[in-house]
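hiii so um. not sure if this is the right channel but i have a protein structure encoded as tokens and i wanna go backwards to a sequence. like what aa goes where. can anyone help
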């Protein structure tokens, strides 16, 4: 089978090696401080804008720095774009009843602003969204009511997919439920661009034999998985990168325990990269959050399949033929990355 030059290769993973921050160290320090407050300490957007305005005022107070003040951005959202901190995601309208998914916008939408124009015509919602990177209109047609049938020849679901809300005396048609799925190819591309990660990723296959097991690699079963007859999947040739993931899924209350008499459960889907040692494996920045299924309740086992199918499709491609990356921290000239999904790690309810 020919090797696909897909996604990340087409989108060029060189982008993860470009220096994005301003060259002026003072401007860089202002932006990093603002981003830390905005993201890690959850400062509201208006608060982050005030912080930037304060920084501008400080610069203006010094004659030698006043010219720099005009370069300080006003909107903290533009910092997220500048530093490329948002994950690449794809949005779907999710049926609140059967959890069937309808593609809502194209991938790699960088604009963080909510859609503003929508209209109803011949039973479909035509949604226009704008991309900051490419100034073009994207129109996606989605039925107003769910057309999915659970089994062949059964009645269609028929659940409404949109609602109308009034914002500033203007009516907006918005999805009742949305599901965002993260792009695994882009996530792997970003991970492999981190120089510090490469030393850890290739040690998993060559652990010294111990009398007692500390990790699942000590059992040896992962290394016995075959890519094809007579060829083990791991560790693979040095010119390529082979990854092993585990799968995890669990429901949680997004409002913690603050709600009164109501229980809302969202269901998150993760992949854990087993190549990493245990102390790095479960760090949030090293875990792949595939998506969070919203809802008032847990989806049934069959309803989860709509979300899992998206993950299965990309993992099949990662297994064979693999995904070609134009550059990684270990392979400057690019390499093929192949991946397997082996164990499911979750509680008995999720299993
Ligand atoms: Zn439905």
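sure thing!! here u go:
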């Amino acid at each position: 089978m020919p090797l696909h030059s897909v996604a990340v290769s087409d989108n060029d993973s060189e982008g993860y090696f470009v220096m994005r921050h301003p060259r002026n160290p003072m401007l860089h320090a202002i932006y990093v401080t603002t981003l830390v407050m905005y993201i890690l300490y959850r400062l509201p957007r208006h608060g982050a804008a005030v912080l930037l305005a304060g920084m501008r005022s400080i610069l203006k107070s010094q004659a030698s720095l006043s010219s720099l003040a005009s370069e300080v951005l006003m909107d903290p959202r533009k910092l997220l774009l500048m530093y490329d901190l948002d994950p690449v995601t794809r949005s779907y309208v999710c049926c609140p009843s059967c959890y069937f998914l309808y593609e809502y916008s194209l991938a790699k939408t960088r604009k963080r602003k909510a859609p503003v124009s929508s209209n109803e015509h011949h039973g479909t919602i035509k949604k226009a969204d704008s991309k900051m990177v490419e100034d073009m209109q994207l129109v996606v047609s989605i039925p107003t009511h769910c057309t999915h049938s659970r089994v062949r020849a059964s009645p269609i679901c028929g659940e409404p997919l949109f609602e109308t809300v009034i914002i500033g005396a203007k009516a907006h048609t918005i999805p009742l439920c949305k599901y965002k799925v993260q792009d695994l190819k882009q996530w792997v591309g970003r991970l492999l661009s981190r120089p510090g990660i490469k030393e850890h990723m290739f040690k998993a296959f060559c652990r010294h034999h111990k009398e007692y097991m500390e990790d699942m690699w000590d059992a040896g079963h992962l290394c016995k998985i075959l890519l094809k007859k007579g060829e083990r999947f791991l560790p693979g040739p040095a010119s390529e990168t082979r990854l092993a993931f585990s799968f995890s899924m669990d429901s949680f209350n997004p409002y913690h325990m603050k709600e009164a008499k109501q229980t809302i459960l969202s269901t998150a889907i993760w992949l854990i990269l087993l190549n990493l040692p245990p102390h790095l494996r479960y760090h949030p920045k090293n875990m792949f959050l595939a998506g969070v299924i919203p809802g008032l309740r847990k989806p049934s086992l069959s309803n989860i399949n709509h979300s899992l199918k998206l993950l299965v499709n990309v993992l099949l491609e990662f297994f064979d033929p693999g995904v070609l990356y134009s550059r990684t921290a270990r392979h400057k000239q690019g390499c093929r990355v192949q991946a397997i999904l082996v164990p499911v790690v979750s509680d008995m309810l999720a299993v």
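oh and Residues 95, 97-98, 100, 146, 148, 157, 159 surround zinc ion (CB under 6 Å).
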